[in-house]
Amino acid sequence: MMFQSRRRLLAPGLAALALIGLGASRCGAPPPEPPAPARSAPQETALLQEIKDKDQGQLAISEEDGRFLRVLVATRGTRRALEIGGASGYSGIWIGQGLRQTGGRLISIEYDPVRAQEAAANIARAGLSDIVQVIHGDAFAEVPKLDGTFDMIFLDAWKQDYKRFFDMTFPRLDPGGVFLAHNVVNKRSDMGDFLDAIAAAPGAWSSIIAPSGEGMSLTYKQR
Ligand SMILES: C[S@@+](CC[C@H](N)C(=O)[O-])C[C@H]1O[C@@H](n2cnc3c(N)ncnc32)[C@H](O)[C@@H]1O
Fold first, then answer.
1. CA 5 – ligand 1 centroid, Å
2. pLDDT in tens, 131-153
3. Residue 109 and residue 185: Cα distance in Å, rounded?
4. Are residues 32 and 13 in the same domain?
5. pTM (2 decimals)?
6. When you count CB atoms within 10 A of the terminal residue's CB, does the N or C end of the chain come out lower?
7. Residue 83 CA: which ligand 1 atom is closest?
8. Side-chain half-sphere of 219: how many Cα atoms within 13 Å?
9. How far apart are CA 16 and CA 12, in angstroms?
10. Atom of ligand 1 nearest to the CA of 65
């Protein structure tokens, strides 16, 4: 990718000379391409930064947590993800990028009407409208209307509601699925009942990670 873009800057003859000079003369074959840097398309990177810049209430997850979610989604082959608390779509875009790799889909529920609208617009700008569906409403009312089960659930709503959301949605998680909750380190005092619940949940393994200071719990539902 990087090499192709360099080649486009050169006249064809010069490009051929550059090829010879770079490697063909050394071992008869051009050198291997350097690996492309793992990053979003430039427009998506700019869009993510724009959402962060406008995020006065600092609602969005950290960039590092977004990177983690993207890798998790892609490496687990996630197909059917649910997000509770989508705000303006920042985390939804990171998850959506991972789902672009797996062919999966995300339903993101957001209570605030303005944020839900912003999320849908941002998802569209990221070219993810066919992957991420934004639903405006209270997730306590909206989740029961959804069909089927999920193989990943990401919870990032009001912290005092975490245990109720866990009780409501964990039965909807597939065996082998993962339930994640955000801010379990920096806001742990607001969600003691939830942290106790995931530690004691039968047939589940939990772990806390902190790609940034906010922390995320991962609860794996055993098969
Ligand atoms: C911390 S923000 C989410 C940030 C988002 N995950 C991101 O990283 O871009 C929490 C959001 O949860 C929403 N929320 C709170 N309770 C909710 C509920 N019961 N149903 C749906 N959304 C809810 C709030 O309106 C708020 O926008």
1. 40
2. 999 999 999 999 999 999 999 99
3. 23
4. yes
5. 0.84
6. C
7. 6
8. 27
9. 6
10. 8
